[in-house]
Here is the input.
Amino acid sequence: MIHTTNRVLVSDLHEHVDRTVSVSGWVHTLRLLSKVQFLVVRDHTG
Here is the structure.
C-alpha cells in the first residue's frame, strides 16, 4: 500500500482540523518550557 500526504500551507491549516498533515518550512522560534517544548514553524505564507 502506498501512503501519500498532501501538502498543506500554514494559511490553510484551519481547514484540516483532526486530520494528519505534513508540515514543512523553517523553525522560526523554539520555546523551551520546563516540561514542554514548542516549535513555531513558518512557510512562505507566514
